[in-house]
Amino acid sequence: MDPVDLPLPVVRRPSAPGDEVDVHALERDLRSRVDGEVRFDTGTCAAYSTDGSNYRQVPLGVVLPRTVEAAVEAVAVCREHGAPLLSRGGGTSLAGECCNTAVVVDWSKYCNRLLSVDPANRRCVVEPGIVLDDLNRQLAAYGLQYGPRPSTHANCTIGGMIGNNSCGSTAQAYGKVVDNLHRLEVLTYDGVRMWVGRTGDGERERLAGAEGREAELYRGLVALRDRYAGPVRERFPDIPRRVSGYNLDSLLPEHGFDIAGLLTGSESTLVTVLRAELELVPVPEHTALVVLGYEDICKAADHVPAVLEHEPAALEGVDHQLIHFQQEKHLNPEALKELPDGRAYLMVQFTSDTREGVEAKARALIDAKPDDVDHTWYDDEQHVHELWLVRESGLGATAHVPGKPDTWEGWEDSAVPVDRLGDYLRDLKRLYEEFDYGHPSVYGHFGHGCVHTRIPFDLESEDGVGRMRAFVEKAADLVVSYGGSLSGEHGDGQSRGELLVKMFGAELIEGFERLKGLFDPGNRMNPGKIVLPYRLDENLRLGADHLPWEPETVFAFPHDDGKFSRAAARCVGVGKCRSSEGGVMCPSYRATREEEHSTRGRARLLFEMVRNDSPIPDGWRSRAVHDALDLCLACKGCKTDCPVNVDMATYKAEFLHHHYKGRPRPLAHYSMGWLPAVARVVARAPRTVNALTSVPWVARTAKALGGVAPERDVPVFAEQRFTDWWRERGGPRGDGHRGEVVVWPDTFTDHFHPAVGRAAVEVLEAAGFRVKVPDAAVCCGLTWISTGQLTVSKRVLGHTLDVLRADLRRGTPVVGLEPSCTAVFRSDAAELLPKDPDVGRLREQTRTLAELLVERAGDWRPPAVDARAVVQRHCHQYAVMGFDAERELLERAGVDADVLDAGCCGLAGNFGFEKGHYEVSMACAEAGLLPAVRAADDATLVLADGFSCRTQVEQAGTGRTPLHLAEVLAAALRGRDADPERPSAPGPRALLPLLPLGVAGLAGASLAVRAVLRRSRPARRR
Question: Dihedral of CA 661/665/668/674: which sign?
Answer without folding.
Answer: positive
